[in-house]
Amino acid sequence: MLYQQIAQNKRRTIYVMIGFLLLVTAIGAAIGYVFYDSSILGIIMAVVIGGIYMLIMISQSTSVVMSMNHAHEITSEDQAPELWHIVEDMAMVAQVPMPRVYIIDDPSPNAFATGNDPKHAAVAATSGILERLNREELEGVMGHEMTHVRNYDIRLQTIALALSAVVSVLVNIGFNSFWWGGGRRGRDNEGGGYIQIIMMMLSILVIILGPLAATIAQMALSRNREYLADAGSVELTRNPQGLISALQKISTAQPMKKADASSAAMYIGDPLKKKKSFAHLFDTHPPMEDRIERLRKM
Amino acid sequence: MLTTIIVIVVIVVLIAIYAGIYNGLVSVRTHTQESWSQIDVQLKRRNDLIPNLVETVKGYTKYESGTLEKVVALRNQMTQIPADDHQQMMDVSNQLTSSLKSIFALSENYPDLKASQEYTKLMEELSNTENKIAYSRQLFNSTAASLNIKIQSFPSNIVAKIHHFEQVAYLEVPEEEKAAPKVSFDD
């Protein structure tokens, strides 16, 4: 099951990338067609900008994600001995290298993992989780995070984050061209009114597609992975009770003060605690009661 | 001519398969040895920590010398066991784990001891070591399982037999210890 899960995640990463590539191409073509009279030029521009931006984002993803979530790195075990030792234990049984460890100063208990692959992974825990959870509970949580690391969930998440950032950069470029280039061209051209309408339509399309794509990417990261990470955690710790009581503590606590909305899906429990959406269609996390119920049955 | 080529190709392929299986066996065996050394490191670390613990506890508790002596005796016994007798080492280690637990339990009666910074630090170090022993035993058993499967299954069993690869015994986990040993006070 584990190897299937890893293979599936690697495959999904490719699907997500292809989907985004198509989207980026479409946005580029739209911008190119409208402002430079050449869709090809626009596509080349979008792919180059997108490619460079993606490379920067992916190589810097850990630092970017950590600073978006106000996390600071700890580099020696003396700074948080219990957390450090538990991460060491979990990395050992999961047979992955020791990840970098970060702490977020926030009284709400929560944690997440990020990175490109198990060799370049990082885990973050809030100061609240360190205060409120005992050792067994924290082991359950870190086992969950280490399963995300081992299953390459973190890579899928990182790529999706980077790609939705690329889309929003392109959307911004489109906006700027609209204000700067668009107006001028409209006046110079005889069919100005007609082109204006197409421009408007395309711009609206781009603006609608951008955020939608980000949502689609988040949806591709199925909620099912949370259940799998819970199961993986129990496989590592052999102790479902620890994770159950950790999840109970996490679900009943107050929301986090300044969690980054775009990385909300990475946390073990929903950090924003927003109201459940219609039919749970756009939830980032499965309902906590379901997760606990499944753990009880193990 | 053609037959010669076919025979040569078949021989080369067979040698390659044989080498692949042999290398696979060697790498799993090395993993098993590595994961034993993980346990060994932690056992030694605990042996180093125990004298500190005894010294610290002694200063605060006057009437509990029996428990402390037992821990010291077990620790000294640990250092006498030959390095390759894994099961005996784990048996003594398990006894040591449970008598350390009784030290932690009795420290409940000594608020001064519990409050001392030195003791808190030792507690974290020791429970870390205890957890690592439990987890590295889990790791050892899973690597041992993959070695044993290779030694028994076809065709790697043939290569294993020729090169005298031996099955590794699993480390048994005492019933009350299946969950990671819990020595924390914060419940």
Automatic annotation (TrEMBL), chain A:
Membrane topology: Multi-pass membrane protein
One Gene Ontology molecular-function label: zinc ion binding
Active site residues of this protein: E145
CDD domains from the UniProt entry: M48B_Htpx_like
GO biological process: one example: proteolysis
Enzyme class: hydrolase
Cofactor note: Binds 1 zinc ion per subunit.
Annotated family: Belongs to the peptidase M48B family.
Name this polypeptide is given: Protease HtpX homolog
Natural source organism: Paucilactobacillus suebicus DSM 5007 = KCTC 3549
Gene that this sequence comes from: htpX
